[in-house]
Write a structure and sequence with these properties.
Layout lengths: L2 E4 L4 H12 L8 E5 L19 E5 L5 H11 L3 E4 L6 H6 L2 H22 L4 H6 L1 E7 L24 H20 L3 E6 L1 E3 L8 H10 L4 E4 L5 E6 H14 L5 E4 L4 E3 H15 L11 E4 L14 H7 L7 H14 L1 H7 L2 H11 L3
Parallel strand pairs: 1-2, 1-4, 2-3, 4-5, 5-6, 6-10, 7-9, 8-12
Antiparallel strand pairs: 9-11
The chain binds nicotinamide-adenine-dinucleotide and thymidine-5'-diphosphate.
């Protein structure tokens, strides 16, 4: 048995691959990891798997149908776990084209290749085959302060080019199940944080800027609410869905942990004051309010009762334990941070924050 993972050199994908091969129940099942190594993909994340025969890394694009066909024919995976995506809302505002290409066209290509492959399977192999699609709570749009959290039946109301492209991919996955019977499952997860998180997203950006004594750019009033989940818990949720999820079903995954951005930034500052005090003063002195993101969603919140009820999944990490581990991880991985803050990263930071 083999898994085909897409985007397994990115933040969540690399955590998933590392966890999969370290968890006793799954460690014996090899992973073929297809990743285009965009700015967000990094083989350093997988360095501990160097020379490990259970991990086959393939540098390639999910829009390359011939390559995907070849990988399916050669490795005959029992499941595809699809992480590969353009994932940053701010980048989707500056350049939406790549989001349509990878998130929509790429998902379409994978679905068609999976359908062709699945149609050749028979008996137990055909029964067992799964296409698992990894998606986001952002497809549901923005909540008011007292609205109930997103359930799986919440209407789709994506507001950014990123969330619209993910919503489109979700609809394709649903249609390939409904029309062709492809055995799909899907998860829509809230904001993740943890090791290997690229420092363009809120939490790692605030940690690395605070360590460098740079401004901590909070968009608008900083009262936007996200539901934060430690990445290892997202990985365990996907493992549960792969093992026991019902075909054709979507499961919302979240941390029961809604927090406004300002609270997140203050927590990061407090932890750094404790773990790496700055002689110049408390890190919170660096907090700077900047121009808001266009179309900024005010609140996301996940109702994760379905996955708990059906599959017995709940997050293992609290925010206090997860954020402490995350800050400590960045402190321990200064080399990784320095390497990803390459020329391309600096260009992005100046493009995104210059006019704010
Ligand atoms: P990421 O940007 O860190 O990683 C994406 C990975 O996909 C990178 O390794 C990149 O090289 C690869 N990739 C991009 N385009 C590709 C292509 N055309 N072909 C092959 N590989 C390609 O993203 P992430 O934060 O790890 O997110 C992974 C998935 O989880 C995405 O589908 C995202 O929508 C979803 N998700 C993310 C979050 C979050 O908080 N980060 C929350 C919910 C859902
Ligand atoms: P982000 O990590 O980009 O995730 P998403 O937009 O997918 O939720 O942003 C999380 C929140 O933090 C979001 O409300 C935007 C805000 N934010 C800032 O205030 N400043 C920043 O520099 C960044 C990157 C995000």
């Amino acid at each position: 048995m083999t898994l085909l993972v897409t985007g397994g050199a990115g933040f969540i994908g690399s955590n998933f691959v590392l966890d999969w091969l370290a968890t006793p129940e799954t460690a014996g099942e090899p992973v073929v990891n297809l990743d285009a190594l965009t700015y967000a993909g990094n083989r350093d994340n997988l360095a501990t798997l160097e020379g490990d025969a259970r991990h086959v890394f393939v540098h390639g694009d999910i829009t390359d149908r011939a390559l995907v066909d070849r990988l399916l024919a050669e490795h005959r995976p029992r499941a595809i776990v699809h992480f590969a995506a353009e994932s940053h809302v701010d980048r989707s505002i500056h350049g939406p084209g790549a989001f349509i290409r990878t998130n929509v066209q790429g998902t379409f290509t994978l679905l068609e290749a999976a359908r062709a492959h699945w149609s050749t399977l028979q008996g137990p192999a055909r029964e067992a085959f799964r296409f698992h699609h990894v998606s986001t709570d952002e497809v549901y749009g923005s909540l008011g302060p007292s609205d109930p959290a997103f359930t799986e039946d919440h209407p789709y109301q994506p507001n950014s080019p990123y969330s619209a492209s993910k919503a489109a991919s979700d609809h394709l996955v649903r249609a390939w199940h409904h029309t062709y019977g492809l055995p799909v499952t899907a998860t829509n997860c809230s904001n993740n944080y943890g090791p290997w998180h690229f420092p363009e997203k809120l939490i790692p950006l605030m940690i690395v800027n605070a360590l460098a004594g740079k401004p901590l750019p909070v968009y608008g009033d900083g009262q936007q609410v996200r539901d934060w989940l430690y990445v290892g818990d997202h990985c365990s949720a996907i493992r549960a869905v792969l093992a026991r999820g019902r075909v054709g079903e979507t499961y919302n995954v979240g941390g029961w942990n809604e927090k406004p951005n300002m609270e997140i930034v203050h927590t990061v500052c407090r932890l750094l004051d404790e773990l790496r005090p700055d002689p110049a003063g408390p890190h919170a002195r660096l907090i700077t309010h900047v121009k808001d993101r266009p179309g900024h969603d005010r609140r996301y919140a996940i109702d994760a009762r379905k996955i708990e009820r059906e599959l017995g999944w709940r997050p293992a990490e609290t925010f206090d334990t997860g954020i402490r581990k995350t800050v400590q991880w960045v402190l321990d991985h200064g080399d990784w941070i320095a390497r990803v803050q390459s020329g391309a990263y600096r260009e992005w930071v100046s493009a995104n924050y210059a006019a704010r």
